[in-house]
Amino acid sequence: MPGLYQESLPKRVYSWYIDDVVTTFWGSAMARTASNVLVFNDLVVKQAIKEAKGQPQREWRFERVLNPGKGSERRAPMPGLILMTQPTGRGVFYKFYRNQLGALKKLRLGDYDEIGLDGARKLWEEQTLSVAGGSDPVGNKHALRTAMTFKDLAELFVTKGTLKANTRANYRRHLETRIYDVIGAKPCEIVTSQDVLALCRKAEAEGHYPLSNVIKSIIGGTYKYGRDQGLCNAKPCLGIGRRGQKVARDRSPTSDEIVALWKAIDANGKKLNKAGKEVSATARLSREMKLIIKLGIVTAQRRTEVAGVQRTELVELEGKEPKWIIPGDVNKRGKIIEGRTKNGRLQIVPLSPLAVSLFKEALENCADKKYIFPADTTKVKSGKEARLPHIHGESVSKAVRRLRTSAGVEDVTIHDMRRAIANYMKDQGFGREVRDLALNHVDGSVDGQHYSQGARMPTQVRAALEAWSRHVEGLVAGQPASASNVVSLRA
Known about the structure:
5-stranded mixed sheet, 3-stranded antiparallel sheet, 42% helix
């Protein structure tokens, strides 16, 4: 159809060329009938899009002019570059190609109004080189659409990864409240370090610097699990250092602070609240919570281990060598049954007379057949379930924060008591092995890891914990602690 655009476009702009039916092959990438060929010129493309309005969809191929304005005009095809004109008056560029299996693929490059003719040329050149190198852009896009998302990978990690129950619960909470909304729906392979940094910086902007590190650890752990299982290859946390400076906590409660906390637990003063009801003058603590905090101080065990103690764990309370056995992880035919200790190692805690009396009081007031400190289901919202069947460790920490306000003690946690106990034992000459066994710390030496991990040193550990118990009794009674000068405290 010679002369189609001659009336609307000056001849000096280009040498127009249109042929309604041109049968040709655009190289190996295109083996199909080509119709509606345009010269690769912006004015020609605009006119084609304009005249396509209200007409059926049409497919245009392109030729570019070689050596324009130098005598004889030559044209060369632009293999695979297609313009689809729509009845709505839109034009969309596509790249047609064959993948390595010979299948014909159609890749959308963009709308003419968005990328223009120059943008279409650049994208066509880039994709032509990419396909020549063996790439399959459409296949890659499809793979991403059907690929495992970050949320899919993270769910596998928290469900099947080697995480302790408490860690798993904490990770899931942070994933659901902080991470999934941002990168959960992204294919796991395209999550970048910038995505991770954005999440970390958001937490830091809110003043949550420890949480920033936790977020990085969760994402890094998720991808390590994915690589170990052959599910992904990405490493978005690579090169991201610790967020904020890590300062080891070294708070160790003093003797006066231990006394103040203990006496605040036992305070019996009364006062009236705003409603005129009589309440305790000290922090409002349940009988169970008071016993948990005292047992945490006396036994040197972690808050969750104390709060979750079970009847079957207490052995020989009436005997000469009472003990508390906290189960560790057990491997039964390849299946790991989680225990209750943080490091998964069985812990045997020799009980001092004071610890025995505290446990006996707890047993006397407990109706639950399994847990000594069961969760208070009356405080659980209707339709919800208690997070744990026993009092939660976080509830213990909150109770200690209320308690220290009543006691006039600043910035002391229940975990800090373990540091005070370790320092006391060291000052009294008890060796590192005894301290590690008392607090259930893992011995990192070769001997401890591979040869003597079964050694419990029960006599030495009992002596250390009983010495600490006598020390606490002496402090509260206002007397120096010694083997011959022990005051029996009311549990």
